[in-house]
Amino acid sequence: MVQIPAMKRVKGRAPLSVVVAIIGGLALAGIIFTEDLRSITEIAAKKEKAREKKRTSLPARTRASTTRLTVAEEARPPPPKKAFHPSRCSVTDGYWAYDRSKKLLYTDETCPYIDRQDSCQRNGRPDSDYLYWDWHLDDCSLPRFDPLRALEKLRGKRLLFVGDSLLLGQWLSLVCLVNSMVPYTARSMERSSTLNVYTAAEYNATIEFYWAPFLVESNSDRNIRLGADGRVLHVDAIEMHARRWKGADILVFDSYVWWMTGSRIKTVWGSFDDDGYEELDAWVAFRLGLKTWANWVDANINPNATKVFFMSISTTHMRSEDWGGRAGGVRCYNETRPVTRKGYWGSGSDRRMMEVMGDVLGRMRRVPVSLLNITQLTEHRVDAHVSVYTEAGGELLTDAQRADPETHADCIHWCVPGVPDTWNQILYAHLFL
Predict the structure, then answer these.
(1) Dihedral (Cα; 212, 218, 222, 228), 10-degree rounding
(2) DSSP-derived secondary structure for 110-167
(3) Which residues are catalytic?
(4) Could you tell me the domains of the chain?
């Protein structure tokens, strides 16, 4: 028998057969792992495909609600809005947002000065949601109205509103916004047909309103019941009114809606007693009247002592078809929510009149006048007019009149509190920051 000599064991090395066995085992495990991984991946892919098919078969609104943001996207805060600055922030670019938790600074029950024409809640309006909408700017943060800060800024000053009944509503709004912060014994109100004066004695401040719906003189300044057919304007005369405006520290003007009571306006160039007059297109007469006002401001106002503002068009809402009014709605009657469509513009704001306003103010060189453009934000508020919850001829509308909104719904004036508070919020942002 031939004997095979024993193999010498090399110290520190595994036998070749063992190495081969280990390598073979690892290769087999790798193959098995690869196959398992491929199977797991294929199963996961099939499940994801099934989920995607299920998602895409859902309605768009449901599909959007089930889409999840990544963790990074969920944690990302919205970009911060810039602090308000008049020269860098547009008050026309924004949206109305509902906030039922908002604390009202006053109501028509707590403020004793609101005219019955504007006291919607006191006159029986059944809904109140219109009070809880705030105007938010797209890119800037519009500051809240602070009554105490406003009073401090008005200390020792005379703020005078000059214009029509829409500006009268804004004046009432401002008075009511600060009134609760003024001690009862340190405030007073004097009212007449032309000049209304609210005095905060503790602050040596007055908030006044002067009636001049055209700014220039007209034969209807004292006889407001004079119809459009009998109304005559003196578009190049203003001194009778303007002499009362001198000495104010802050002047706020408006004029629009009275110019729109007809397509033509009767105009005289001499005395109202003259037999002849000329009929002008409304926008032509408006330009002439506004230029007369601008010339007076440039000649009589010291820009270092007086700030001057001009309120833009306060929109009317006479045609519910403009915004696709709710069922049963007539004009603004029965509307309870704003128009939310971005950039909505109806037939209640005349673009040509806006252009005239911007052009005349833009040509003023000596006295800078700030145009407070409230038109776009006002366009949306079909819900906030006094509608049938108002008075006519000094008397509240009767039940029979309220039942006829086609005839009696007032879609020009605004409930107070309401939209005029937002106008004053914008005025506050321009004046006091």
Answers:
(1) -100
(2) T-TT--TTT-TTTTT----GGGGEEEEESSEEPPPP-HHHHHHHHTT-EEEEEESHHH
(3) 165, 410, 413
(4) 99-387+404-432 (3.40.50.1110)
What's the mean pLDDT in 328-355? 93
Q: Cα separation of 343 and 92, whole Å? A: 9
Beta bridge partners of 156: none
Residue that the structure tokens 């085992």 belong to: 25
pLDDT in tens, 11-70: 444 454 544 444 445 444 444 444 444 544 454 455 455 554 444 443 443 333 333 434
At 346, the amino acid letter reads: G
> Angle CA(162)–CA(86)–CA(80) in degrees, nearest 5?
140
CB atoms within 10 A of CB 195: 13
What are the φ and ψ backbone dihedral angles of 360, each rounded to 5 degrees?
-65, -45
DSSP type of residue 333: B
Percent of residues in the chain assigned helix, strand, coil, to nearest 5 = 35, 20, 45
Distance CA 110, CA 27 (A): 88
* C-alpha torsion angle, residues 407, 412, 416, 417 (rounded to 10): 120
Pairwise CA distance, residues 399 & 252, whole Å: 37
Cβ atoms of residues 378 and 315 within 8 Å: yes
Bond before 417 cis per omega within 30 degrees:
yes
215: left (phi over 0), alpha (psi -120 to 50) or beta: left
Smallest Cα–Cα separation from 288: which of 220, 236, 242? 236
> Contact 95/376 with Cβ under 8 angstroms?
no
CA distance 342 to 300: 41
* Measured distance CA(227)–CA(233) in Å, rounded: 13
pLDDT tens across 239-248, in order? 999 999 999 9
pTM of the prediction? Answer: 0.81
Using CA atoms, how far residue 94 sits from 162, 247, 323, 405, 431, in Å, is: 27, 36, 18, 31, 20
Distance CA 131, CA 422 (A): 11
